[in-house]
Amino acid sequence: MTQPNHDTRAGDAQTHTSLAVLVSILLLMAAYQMLRYAGHWGEVDAANALAAIRAMWDAGRLVPSTGPVYPNGYAYQALVMALSAVSGISIEHFQFYGSLLLMSWVVLPAWLLYRELTDSPAGATLATVILLVQPEFLFPLLRGTHEKFTRGLILLALYLFVRSLRTHQSPVSLSGFVLAFYLTVYAIISFNNLMAFSFVAALILSLGLMAVLGWWSQGTNKGLAQASKRLSYAAIVSLVVTFLFTFFLYRPAQHDILVMQGLVDQLASLFLNVEQDITNPYTLWITGGWISPGVYRIISLANWLLLIVSIVVWARMSLDLLRFGPRDWAMDRLILWSLYSVFAFQAALSILVDLSGGLASNLQHRIFPSFAMLAAPLVARAVIEHQWFARRHRLLALVPIAASLVFLATVSVLKATNEPLVSNKWLYHTPAEMNALDRAQTILADRRLWSEFDERLSAGYRLRDRPLSVLLESGQYPRSPMTRSILVSDVTRARGFRMAMDPPVEGDSLVTFDNGQAQIYRLRPRTPYQR
Fold first, then answer.
1. pLDDT per residue over 308-349, tens digit each?
2. Percent of the chain with pLDDT over 70
3. What is the DSSP string of 78-103?
4. Closest of 365, 70, 334 to residue 227, by C-alpha
5. pLDDT category, 368, cuts 50, 70, 90?
């Protein structure tokens, strides 16, 4: 009988320990959000997702005839419905709590992919930690939307593709990985068609880069030729599946094309200076969204470090590529370099789109997580390959590195959760505010109510999955002359003091409701037609 390989068992134990620690890190981050707000928080995308889930639940169809329909995919709504039915947890409670706990699944596909791209379990663990301390990556995971699954599926698809290149000598294993890859691609499309389109575009751009590298190496790099051939199949089939989904399988996804039609005009206004009053969305967000630009830089430190270090590593790799050519590069190194290049190009292009004012001026925030997913293994691989600290001093070097990662994780969680201590974009609400909105449904049915400076209370109330008979208005838009009732709470006053803004309450307004922490004011009529 053969004896078990002790090195293999030790490696498996180390792998299991690493995965357990990584999952625990994400669960601690989720626990912070749950304990910090105790379920009293609201966010627009999560509220919209809940409305789409409820409409699908009531209709029993993927595309309900009444109610809101999420145009970019149906998978998240269907998944929440299935999990709610199996677990017995209500849909709204799943949005508050269940979706936060499920985000920990991202660790497994991330670690598996990074093990392939760094060719090291230690590199996989380091790359995963680097990814998890990125606030722009954490923010979508902490919301009650599809992104916690879509991001994980993108990582899984890339892992299956890279892994299939290593199993070309086993037809059975190869067939399994290829089939799993295409099923995963369809899952990405069904969760979010736009994000899938970005992923397929990255595959196509990577194919172009590899074609150039293949021409340069003159066929001497066998791994490059194999990867290019497999990538061409993956890109073409994925593009066909995306087309079929958009035009035949899920008709609401055609809305994405209507969104894209105005993009060319927006870019023309940027490059040709047709419009001179284009605002910078990042300047407005930094100055208005956080208590100070200095605090914003601190809580965004992980993003900037990853961006700068990864660019330096990529530039060094590119110089080596120009000097020596791709013929001696390993397949995983080529794939990592090309994928990072195309996702960095998409991130740079998204900044131009944001400056043009297209797609709600927040595309860069949606693309950066994809960029971070490839920048993390690039940096981790450089650390592992170059051994930036000596072996005998490794333990001493790990202490400041671990302390730095803990600090970055802490400040990143503060940014990802819009911590009120540093953010002006508050997401939480109080029971007294919800009680006031409940009362408004009775005394102000079919009327208008100014509720906050933004959608803070309206999103929180919609996430409670209760019927809304009053039209909630916020300070994001000019107040309608028909809006005669104003909701003001202690939280609203504190937030207004922070932002130097006042609720639109006049001095002689009447108090029609007061529970001690929230009041509803009624503006006195100024004309015979007002009441």
1. 999 999 999 999 998 888 877 888 899 999 999 999 998 887
2. 86
3. HHHHHHHHHH---HHHIIIIIHHHHG
4. 334
5. confident
- Where helices occur in 192-330 by DSSP H, the ranges are 193-217, 222-244, 255-261, 263-271, 281-289, 293-299, 301-324
Helix (H) or strand (E) holding 189: helix 171-191
Q: What is the mean pLDDT of residues 237-261?
A: 82
pLDDT band for position 459 (cuts 50, 70, 90): very high
Q: How far apart are CA 241 and CA 250, in angstroms?
A: 12
Distance CA 215, CA 194 (A): 32
Amino acid at 439: R
Q: Is 88 exposed, middle or buried (0-12, 13-18, 19+ CB in 10 A)?
A: exposed
β partners of residue 488: 519
Which one, of 485, 494, 505, lies nearest residue 456 by Cα?
A: 494
* Two tokens, residue 321: 């590529």
Q: Which of 120, 192, 162 is nearest to 370 (CA)?
A: 192
As a whole number of angstroms, the distance between CA 198 and CA 157 comes to 14
Which helix (H) or strand (E) covers residue 374, if one does? helix 363-386
- Look at residue 42 and tell me whether its pLDDT is greater than 70: yes
Q: Measured between alpha carbons, how far is 136 from 247 in angstroms, rounded to an integer? A: 32
**Backbone torsions φ then ψ of 514, nearest 5 degrees:** -155, 120
DSSP secondary structure letters along 385-453: HHTSS-GGGHHHHHHHHHHHHHHHHHHHHHHHTT-TTTBSS--B--HHHHHHHHHHHHHTTTSEEEEES
CA dist 264 and 269 (Å) reads 9
Selection from 46, 138, 27 nearest residue 94 by Cα:
46
**What is the token pair recorded at 163?**
């892994």
Angle at 82 between CA 78 and CA 86, to 5 degrees: 170
CA atoms within 13 A of residue 380's CA, in its CB half-sphere: 28
Global confidence as pTM: 0.91
Residue 260 and residue 221 in contact, taking contact as beta carbons nearer than 8 Å: no
pLDDT of residue 397: 65
- How far CA 433 is from CA of 423, 428, 511, 519, 520, in Å, comes to 20, 10, 15, 9, 10
More confident residue, 235 or 385: 235
Q: What is the pLDDT of residue 158?
A: 97
Q: Dihedrals φ, ψ of 229, to 5°?
A: -65, -45
More confident: 430 or 96 = 430
Q: Which two tokens stand for residue 104?
A: 């920990």
CA-angle at 339, arms to 335 and 343, nearest 5°: 175
Residue 361's pLDDT is what?
Answer: 47
AA identity, residue 525: P
